[in-house]
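Handout, section B. The chain below has 317 residues.
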Amino acid sequence: MEGIEHRMVKVNGINIHIAEKGEGPVILFLHGFPELWYSWRHQILALSSMGYRAVAPDLRGYGDSDAPDSVESYTCFHVIGDLVELINVVDPDEGKVFVVGHDWGAILGWYLCMFRPDKVKALVNLSVPFLRFHPEIKPVGFWKSYYGSDHYISRFQEYGEIEGEFAEIGVERVLKGYLSDFPVLLPKGKLFKRPLDEENTLPCWLSEEEANYYVTKFQKTGFTGPLNFYRNLNRNWELLKPWVGSKIKTPAKFIMGDKDLVYGVPGMKDYIHNGGFQEDVPSLQQVVVMEGVGHFINMEKPDEINQYIYDFFTQFH
């Protein structure tokens, strides 16, 4: 990836790996599961050529960043603590950046704006809208009640169990399975529906070489760090009680594909289009639903996404 520079920065007591390119106002790119800084490769190259400095970390537990051992080290506060210090490191003068998030990175983008709005100029989030807290129902219970105990969020909860099953079928198969067709259900013994000897066909937007970059990194680190984000869903729900009902006031734009699994969640379309989302994020300026596009929208439609990001952020100089 031409001209992209890599370095380790010490933030919040751990080492975080960042990839960066360009000069100008900083855009911080936050990846999701099971991804890496590399998921933003198209955005880094494009936005750095449009007058921005693109910075994409591997979140804690991922890639070349440190992966603390304890499950409790992956709460929303730990990860946002990393990001706040990272913003101070990459933009010491202003201490305030543009943010783009996808999947878990989008959830973190919303949290960052909720806890530290002074750190974010404007936000573009992909795939996961702001998720309203339900004061009575814990998130893991909510998913289980809709989708049963084979739902991936339920299956990710037990420390070590899904790691063992992933190890059996191999990192390559797991990653290619996720990146090509994010499975909502993971029944024991039939994790990715296909027989083990059947080839995994990659989508047209992901080359073998690109997929292998992920495989190489995850073979080194395993999945425990990334899965620990999910293992803190209920803990985050408890920790976030003081913010129930709070609004996100940062200027925001939201983009998702109509084939994204998140768009199909019960009640999601109604929340996004019928006022709930706008109520929770009063500065939400635009919602874009792209036809025929799935979950990994920034890799599937890089040119359109790059343009959307650029057009939105240019208002705030």
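Note. The two ends are 28 Å apart (CA to CA). Compare this with the example in section A.
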